[in-house]
Amino acid sequence: MNKTLPLFSRRVILRGGLAGLAAMMSPSLLASCSSEGGAPAPPATPGEPPFGVPIDGPKLVSRIAEIGPLGDPDANGVKLPPGFSARIVARTNAKPLETSDYVWHIAPDGGATFLLEDGGYVYVSNSEVPIAGGVGALRFDAAGKLVDAYPILSMTNINCAGGPTPWGTWLSCEEASRGRVFECDPRGEHEAIVRPALGIFKHEAAAIDRVKHHVYLTEDENDGCFYRFVPDKLNRLGFADISSGKLQVAEVAMDGSVKWLDVPDPLFEGPTPTRKQVASATLFDGGEGIWYHQGIVYFSAKGEGRVYAYDTMTETLAVIYDASQAATPILTGVDNITVSCCGDVLVAEDSGDMQIVAILPSGELKPIVQVMGHDKSEITGPAFDPSGTRLYFSSQRGDGSGGVTYEVTGPFHAPA
Predict the structure, then answer these.
(1) Residue-level pLDDT at 114
(2) pLDDT at 61 (0 to 100)
(3) CA nearest 392: which of 136, 183, 33?
């Protein structure tokens, strides 16, 4: 990526993006501090998955700006702010629940949560291992008690990150040279469906624009692209039908404006890798986590130490964090991303200080959790539960004995 792209404050990005969205978005979508969902799903039509039910979550306000400094490590080696607590909910090669035969997977990576009709929720987590990868799920009741554990995808290849869909499914991405995207049922009731139309390349993560119905994808190569998928039609829920459409790559001008160019062979059926098929495509070093929030697509590029913000209305790209320009770069190894209800961008570190650091709308950096003694690991899969009071994530390799998945509870959010 061109090093001269300007560095903008979060306030500028949010103000510009939201102003543009106002002309198109409904009042419910303009409520920046609310969980988003929809009505019960009508029956599936031929060619569509028989799963995916979006459910409205509670309206929330963020309290992340109020979080205090990290304290001493707790009994599990986790440094937390005052008023927060942590517990381990799963370990690699161990049963999360004695009542289930399911063994938690190796190398837990990208994750997300999904609200259920009974007020409970599911946290899904990828397994970033060759050939024997996939996705595991932890089901919690409405009080946050772990009640079930099970696989939702098995025997796939290096499942790194992915992204939740607005219709209640999980896109699990393979980080392999001919990697695919699988659409998975968090409930574990239906078989996953491969989605080749989203491209064949070294996938990292995916995020879906709920307004324009585009899918944005990152690529974990040192010369990777920033992709956009434009569906041919909408699905039965009024969202993107990801079974067919156009895959495009971004060409970014010096002023940050973006032109989208069609990829001629998105299935990589010819000799040229997907990322090399458009000569003028802008290249990013190590595309990682990506998340859509209120008309902005945030994504990280680990090799550059940058976090980007793409405004879907103005079609412009800006840098909101650059470790090389930070006076005190407390955030390094930028990787997985999630965003709070009100636009706090939470970035997980691959190595670095093994922290999750929030980039507030003001641009201030605020560490919110740190794992000690896991110096050769990385933080993966950050995701809030529907109440916004529980944050799930993993230390992918732990202290060397295997991955550890945590739950941190505290006042990240409050009811609106």
Answers:
(1) 97
(2) 97
(3) 136
